[in-house]
From TrEMBL:
Name of the protein in its database record: Isochorismatase family protein
Lineage: Bacteria, Bacillati, Bacillota, Bacilli, Bacillales
Similarity field: Belongs to the isochorismatase family.
Cell membrane as UniProt keyword: no
Organism: Natronobacillus azotifigens
MF GO annotations: hydrolase activity
Domain Isochorismatase-like, first and last residues per copy: 3-142
Hydrolase among keywords: yes
Domain of life: Bacteria
């Protein structure tokens, strides 16, 4: 069985950029899963630090209004990995999930960490590169022309264990409405 993880699509992240394209792509994938009664699991990152944009008692920590209505399950986390000290492993076992599709924020942190951890736990993983986004830029990492999503996608693809697709490739391979 397949499930979609929508990672950290929260007000405190979305407000940092123009993510309309990424949110629209995520929504299209979500609708595909929903139309086929496949689980859509939202991860919600919560920080204890009051100055964090994802402070647990702030509006910033809430799921973004554009997608939150689609959540079948919401699981809270406090680290980049959606698996570390969360209810996710139990929920996936309960649902009989063997194949995870990864979307959300931030590409190079929570999405990547979750994808790698999922492989380590025996799941098949599909990372939908253009259904992820990041608030960071190449300048953040002192690599002016770095395309973070493309770089992460390439590294994960080269692992030969994580399938990396863009949305159009996803439609060709997995569109569940076929």
């Amino acid at each position: 069985m397949k499930a979609l993880l929508v990672i950290d699509v929260q007000n405190g992240i979305v407000r940092f950029g123009d993510f309309q394209k990424e949110l629209s792509t995520m929504e299209n994938v979500i609708k595909d899963f929903k139309a086929n009664a496949m689980p859509v699991i939202f991860m919600r990152h919560l920080d204890d630090a009051e100055d964090s944009p994802l402070y647990k008692k702030s509006v910033g920590s809430e799921l973004h209004s554009s997608l939150k209505e689609y959540a079948d399950y919401v699981i809270e986390k406090q680290t980049p990995s959606s698996f570390f000290n969360t209810r996710l492993p139990d929920k996936l076992e309960e649902l009989g999930i063997k194949h995870l599709f990864i979307t959300g924020f931030n590409t190079e942190f929570c999405c990547m960490f979750t994808a790698i951890t999922a492989i380590d736990r025996g799941f098949r993983v599909t990372f939908i590169e253009d259904a992820t986004g990041t608030v960071n830029t190449g300048e953040t990492y002192e690599m002016k022309d770095l395309d973070i999503k493309d770089f992460v996608g390439t590294v994960l693809h080269w692992s030969n264990v994580i399938e990396v697709l863009d949305y159009e490739e996803y439609l060709e391979c997995y569109n569940l409405k076929k």
